[in-house]
Amino acid sequence: MERLQRLNSQSKRTEAIEEIMSLKALPMSISDEALVVFTYAVLSYQTKNYDQAQLSFERALKLDSGLKLYIYFLQAHLYLESENFRDAEKKFSAFVALKPPRQLWYEARYKLGLLAERKKKTLALGLSTFSICRAKVALQPKSSTSHLETHWC
Question: What is the predicted pLDDT for the residue at 132?
Fold first, then answer.
């Protein structure tokens, strides 16, 4: 395990992933296996292999729910980076509900605020687009077949 930490801190992620793959073959306790899978998930996340990271986070969570706090935090960031804003908001909310350490709590609340602001702007943009479309339709001359026509913007 110390070798994994050293490899990761030296940014030799490829070597660390190979080391983790070799560790998976060894017999180990469930909590050790969860830690290995979690480390693999983190390295996958750092190398932007988001699908593999997500699968590994889910597997680590099933193996050891004691990692839930860290997994939710990293999953929320994973969703944020892959622009899955709805799931990011859900994970940040679940993370905050677990009462994390203060600094992480503040970061999660900040990100939730940014997501809420983004949602508010998206909604405002949608409403303004809808208003413009309504105005265009209202300006269309009425014809005898207008009830059959659909006006799209």
Answer: 53
